[in-house]
């Protein structure tokens, strides 16, 4: 089933309901599905995620941006994303790996020009490249683990917009 994953991380759809109707229906849904799912509504934005008891570190969030259309329908821009805390941590790790890679590269270049031994710098550079690939692999693995939960969030969204 996961091999045939048809959801996209970003999507656009049109609901044949007014913006106010969709917001009211999500308010009603909010009380029905908590604590298993968390629904946050702010202006024309809705965030869906798993409840605190069901959430894993790889659990996705669904952000919906609702825009009223002239014909009375509602345009919905959706975005699946990771937990903001986990995403921030991954960005920090990428930044840290990049800084260490940059410093080791400068140090290696300097030692090459000064005809000194630069073996340690080459090892550090290789280790940072390995860590970049490892972070990429971990992110892809977490994304695959979150596919069933993405399907759950998609089902909840479709209950309202269809």
Give the topology.
Layout: E1 10-15, H1 19-33, E2 37-42, E3 45-50, E4 61-68, E5 74-81, H2 84-113, H3 119-145, H4 147-161
Antiparallel strand pairs: 1-5, 2-3, 3-4, 4-5
Transmembrane segments: 85-106, 118-139
Keywords: Membrane, Transmembrane, Transmembrane helix
Organism: Flavobacterium jejuense
What does the model show?
Helix content is 54%, strand content 21%. With 162 residues, the protein is α+β, with helices and mostly antiparallel strands. Helix 2 (84-113) runs antiparallel to helix 3 (119-145). The longest helix is centred in the middle third of the chain and has 30 residues, at 84-113. The chain is elongated. Keywords: Membrane, Transmembrane, Transmembrane helix. This is GTP-binding protein.
In brief:
This is GTP-binding protein. The protein has two domains: 10-82 and 146-161, Kinase associated domain 1, KA1 (TATA-Binding Protein); 86-140.
Q: Helix fraction?
A: 40-55%
**Strand segment count:** 5
Instruction: Compute the separation of the termini in Å.
Output: 23 Å
What's the domain count? 2
CATH architecture verdict of the largest domain:
2-Layer Sandwich
Coarse structural class: alpha+beta
Oligomer: single chain
Largest sheet: 5 strands, antiparallel
Radius of gyration over alpha carbons? Answer: 22 Å
Q: Give the uncertain stretches in residue-range form.
A: 1-7
Mean pLDDT: 89
Tell me the β content: 15-25%
Total helical segments: 4
Within the CATH hierarchy, at the fold level, what is the topology of the largest domain? TATA-Binding Protein
Order of helices and strands: EHEEEEHHH
Keywords: Membrane, Transmembrane, Transmembrane helix
Protein name: GTP-binding protein
Transmembrane segments: 85-106, 118-139
């Amino acid at each position: 089933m996961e091999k045939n994953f048809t959801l996209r991380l970003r999507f656009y759809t049109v609901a044949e309901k007014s913006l106010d109707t969709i917001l009211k229906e999500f308010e009603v849904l909010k009380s029905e599905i908590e604590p298993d799912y968390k629904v946050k509504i702010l202006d024309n934005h809705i965030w869906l995620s798993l409840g605190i008891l069901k959430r894993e570190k790889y659990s996705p969030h669904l952000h919906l941006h609702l825009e009223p259309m002239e014909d009375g329908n509602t345009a919905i821009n959706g975005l699946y994303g990771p937990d903001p805390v986990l995403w921030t941590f991954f960005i920090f790790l990428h930044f840290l790996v990049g800084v260490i890679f940059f410093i080791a590269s400068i140090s290696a270049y300097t030692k090459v020009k000064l005809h000194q031994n630069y073996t340690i710098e080459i090892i550090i550079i290789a280790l940072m490249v390995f860590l970049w690939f490892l972070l990429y692999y971990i992110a892809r693995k977490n994304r695959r683990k979150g596919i069933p939960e993405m399907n759950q969030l998609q089902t909840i969204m479709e209950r309202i917009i269809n």
